[in-house]
Design goal:
Elements: H1 2-19, E1 26-31, H2 41-48, H3 51-54, E2 57-62, H4 67-75, E3 81-85, H5 86-95, E4 100-105, E5 112-117, E6 132-135, H6 141-151, E7 160-163, H7 169-174, E8 180-184, H8 188-197, E9 202-206, E10 217-222, H9 223-228, H10 230-249, H11 251-261, H12 267-276, H13 278-281, H14 284-289, H15 296-310
Parallel strand pairs: 1-2, 1-3, 6-7, 6-8
Antiparallel strand pairs: 3-10, 4-10, 5-8, 5-9
Helix pairs in contact: 2-10, 2-11, 6-15, 10-11, 11-12
Length: 331
């Protein structure tokens, strides 16, 4: 009778324990700065591999319409954290009080590049003299165009710089309506694929190899979120950083994970994009100062060139005030 009673008690206790809800996950809203793709893979990888869940987080991902859009939504509290070009954040904070802070770097090299068609007379940046270069009117690369061309021994006045719809840039280049285009390195796979369809090959001249030493795409966060939930912010960035590492260790799997969440993203294109932009993430700068970390001198140079490009008094902003190193573990 005693044994039967004990067995009954044990069974009842087990049933009660199994009926208890698991500890609730804390929700974090993550704002993209553009459409999903290979360059946005780390957050999808961290989500699909369970890195967020392991640290007690449920992450909701929202699509974006550019860095300014992402900054605006995060500042308004519609998202807790997200991606943005640090160039846009520093410029915005120089002229306005914005409750958003940079907390982790993603692209520690400038993502811009000149693209030309091989065999058409532009085989180096110096060959752009007296040529036509097309770019989107909205891209932040326009800010640094004068600096890059003069840094490479050219006169800006000697280059015809025209603006065109972003969707028409690659066709313009491939069909000979411009000698070169400026675009992000993240567009490499798309441009190369279109070129190969008509039997062409392209040259790519990244600006990080042409003297533009700046930070770019970064993780930013709402100041109130950082103040009220610092531990959540640290756990989120820990999981995201793990996703970054996994993404470039396993690009094909990472591309497939983006596709699983966003079916319209081609997994092969996503994987190829991840591989094509490896140098933006894993490079001498990130190796020397740690993946995701903002190095003081490079951040200062980033701000110096932004101020120079936009004719802003550099004294209007201390770039150190725009970022925080309190939420990412040192490598």
């Amino acid at each position: 009778m005693i044994r039967k009673t004990l067995n009954t008690v044990a069974l009842s206790a087990a049933l009660c324990l199994s009926a208890l809800p698991s500890q609730a996950l804390e929700t974090v809203v993550y704002q993209l700065d553009w459409l999903p793709g290979g360059d946005k893979a780390p957050v999808y990888v961290a989500q699909q591999k369970g890195f967020f869940k392991e640290l007690g987080l449920e992450v909701k991902i929202a699509q974006g319409k550019g860095s300014t859009d992402a900054i605006t939504k995060i500042a308004a509290g519609h998202a807790d954290v997200g991606r943005s070009d640090i160039v846009a954040l520093l410029a915005a904070k120089a002229s306005n009080t914005i409750p958003v802070t940079g907390v982790m770097n993603v692209f520690s090299e400038a993502p811009y590049a000149f693209f030309t068609v091989k065999g058409r007379g532009v085989e180096s940046i110096q060959d752009l003299a007296e040529k036509t270069v097309a770019s989107s009117p909205f891209t932040s690369s326009n800010l640094f165009f004068p600096y890059v061309v003069t840094k490479n021994g050219l006169e800006e006045s000697g280059i015809r710089h025209v603006k065109a719809n972003p969707g028409s840039l690659a066709p313009m280049l491939l069909h000979g309506r411009t000698d070169a285009i400026t675009s992000w390195v993240t567009d490499t796979v798309t441009i190369q694929t279109e070129a190969e369809k008509i039997g062409l090959q392209v040259n790519i001249f990244p600006w990080y190899g042409a003297g533009l030493n700046i930070y770019s795409s970064s993780v930013i966060a709402n100041d109130q979120f950082l103040k009220d939930r610092p531990d959540v912010a640290k756990r989120f960035l820990q999981a995201l950083k793990k996703g970054m590492i996994y993404t470039w260790q396993h690009p094909e799997e990472a591309g497939e994970m983006v596709h699983q969440v966003v079916p319209e993203v081609d997994p092969v294109v996503a994987a190829n994009t991840i591989m094509s932009i490896r140098q933006l993430v894993h490079n001498p700068s990130s190796e020397a100062h740690g993946l995701g970390n903002f190095e003081k001198n490079k951040l200062a140079e980033t701000w110096r060139l932004i101020a120079l490009a936009q004719d802003i008094d550099p004294a209007k902003l201390d770039p150190e005030s725009a970022i925080s190193r309190d939420f990412v573990e040192a490598n």
